[in-house]
Amino acid sequence: MQRVLWITGAGSGMGRASALAAAEAGWTVVLSGRRADALRDTVSEIEAAGGTALALPLDVRDGAAVTAARAAVVDRFGRIDGLVLAAGLNSPRRRWDDQEIGVFHDVVATNLGAVASVVDAALPDLRTAGGVVVVVSSYAGWSFSPNAGVAYSASKTALGSLVRTLNAQEAASGVRATHLCPGDVATDFLDQRPNVPDAAARARMLTPEDIARTVRFVLDSPAHVRIDELVVSPVVRA
C-alpha cells in the first residue's frame, strides 16, 4: 500500500533527514518549505535511490497556501497518511529586554500556528487513513530552558498541549500524534542563537540523522501504538 507522508521544514536539517529516512522505509514523501532549490535537491536524492517524492514549496505561515498545498497532495496521490512538522524559527534577540514584538509573532506563527494549520488541513485525510503525526518540538517544549527565548519557549511548550488535544479528541479515528522534543541538534538552526556554537560544541550534539531515526521509529510503529512524547538528548548538554 502506498503511504503518503507530508513533511514541512523539509529543505534542511531534521526535516530533510526525516524525508530521506521515510523514503528509505517506503513512504511516498511530499517535501514542503520555503527554499524550492533545496527541496528539489532532496527529491532528486530520493528518486535516485528509487523512492517517490514531490517538492511542494510553501510558507507554512500562509493559511490559504497550506490549504491549497493539502489539496495538491491529495490531487496527486489521493491520500495523506502522515505528517512530520519540522518547520521552526527563532531569533538571536529573544529576551524580554531585546526582542521585537513583530519577531515574537513570527516565531509563534511558525512554531505553533503553522503546525495547527497543517494538522487542520490534513485532518480529514488522517482520519480516513488512521494517520500519524510527528510534531518536531524541542527540549525547551518539554523542560523550561531559560536561554531558548520568550517566543520559542512559549510556542514549543504549547505544542505539547496541541498534541495532547489531538490525541484525546481524534483517537476514535485512529489518529495518533507524537510530541518529539530533541535536545541540541547540529544544524543551521544554531546560527539563530545569540552565541553561535563552534565546531567542537556541535560535535557533541545530536545529528539530524539521529532525529530522523526517531521519526522513522514513530512512523513505523503499528497502528494500535501511540507514542505520546519522546525526548532525545545528547549525552553532554550545552
UniProtKB/TrEMBL annotation:
Keywords: Oxidoreductase
CDD domains in the cross-refs: SDR_c
GO molecular function ontology, one term from the record: oxidoreductase activity
InterPro entries documented for this protein: NAD(P)-bd_dom_sf, SDR_fam
GO CC term, one of those recorded: membrane
SUPFAM superfamilies xrefs: NAD(P)-binding Rossmann-fold domains
Family affiliation: Belongs to the short-chain dehydrogenases/reductases (SDR) family.
Name of this protein: NADP-dependent 3-hydroxy acid dehydrogenase YdfG
Organism: Kineococcus radiotolerans
